[in-house]
Fold Secretion system C-terminal sorting domain-containing protein.
Amino acid sequence: MKRTIFLTICTALTSILSLGQTSTEMFETESHSSSSFTDNGVIFNINSHVTTFDLQANYPGTGWSGTANDNRYIDNSNSAGNGASFSLKTTSNLFKANRFWIYLSNTSLDQTVSGTLTVTGKLSGVTKFTQTKTTGFATSLGTTNGYTLIDLTNLNAQNYSNIIIDELQITLGGAYTYAGLDAFTWVKDSGMVLAANEIKVSKNALSVYPNPIYGPFSIRSDESSRANIYDQAGKLVKSLEVIQGENKADVSDLPNGIYLIKTASETHKIIKR
């Protein structure tokens, strides 16, 4: 009896832990001037929108790990300017942003100037949330080396940490022209991850058409399998038995939006209109 209870508890804990993996990227092993980084097996691209952001490793001790000074972070030190903006974007994964630390100043590294910070989460180019912070920024090195914590569980009294995105955009406003971002904490969820080894483009075992979908659609598969459809929150909304050849399906009952259809070997994004 005790053994059965113990195994049940272990199974439950394993299931819970597999749902989400929290990871913090401190950039200490990343290459200087790189425009991408890898954390917990996921590749993030640093996409510059206004001014150029990349990995900075030339100024040891000027970063912040969340508890102590560190040496590497993302910044735009070579091209600071008005409206500076960049994104952390994945191409084969979805994620949830939790928090990050950011140093904000003008080009002369004066932190006492007035500015704003806008944080935007996007999924497939569609804005899922956006919030502008106007106060509460560090104005001196102090105990955090000049960095301000941006906590998405309570940003302007709103919780954005449970929203699934593939891009987190940071935009400066006012007199802020320089930013250094460090200690990026995010969540990789097994229920929403499109790992590279799950997407077998060359095999082309599964095709969905038309896409966008307006209701009925076709699935052509080279193998028999189960196809699960997930919404943007990672929730399973429909399950289909797919046989080899052409299959008919219908999502008329689903709200318009973006969905993922997954089989054992492939994952495809579909748009319901």
Notes: The chain has two domains: 24-192, 206-272. The two ends are 52 Å apart (CA to CA). Residues 2-19 form the longest helix (18 residues). The CA atoms of residues 66 and 215 lie 48 Å apart.
